[in-house]
Amino acid sequence: AREHRLPKLIPYGSVRGDLQVQTNWTDGAASIEEMARAAKKRGLTYIAVTDHTKALAFIGGLNDQGVARQGKAIDALNKKLTEFRVFKGTECDIHANGSLDLKNETLKRLEWVGISVHSAFRLSRAAQTKRVITAVSNPNVDCLFHPLAGLIGKREPIDLDLDEVIAAAKKYRVALEIDSYPERSDLNAMHVRAAVKAGVMLAVDTDAHAPEHFDFLPLGEAIARRGWAEKKDVLNTKTAKELLTWLEKKRKRKA
Known about the structure:
alpha/beta, seven-stranded parallel sheet, 7 strands
């Protein structure tokens, strides 16, 4: 502070789009259109639909064919919507060995690929870290969702060497998520600070499973502020067009 080097913290209301949204195609409570209109009502200009994949069979996770069908539905919806964009995405499960739950051909066709851990929570620190880094290294991956996979009061975070994961995210140009859902709050402020120092991009999302969950966004922005993130550090402060440009450049560099 004496040296006037405090960051200009991300202002509340800076997030333009939510990049983790579930719908009634899997375990969400509303349709894609209902979620899109709820997000627009709250001032957002885009969402990414990121329904779960087939490893979560108990909630009807989507296989490759299901993701393709959903993509066609999203294309049709985008023709109806005005001043709003729905991205074709996924919350693709990370298997215990670090492989992903959808084929690479499917992932390549999506505009936004998020990955996450929903199983094998008790692997050793070394095995869990290797698992996540293997997944992050996939050239089709854009973001690691709720990196520590905990649920406050319900499930402890996985044992992960987050410094190594942050280094891998930097190397492979993968964003790390701040999940605003109150039971998640993952990453926390200390992790955000480490990611910002390393030059890793962040995404502030709600993990919305119902329209009212979009109201959680300020909670994620608060975590970002406590971690000294600036607006430039948060990927979804970009417009939809800017985000697509960023993603295209990133994927070309990985090729």
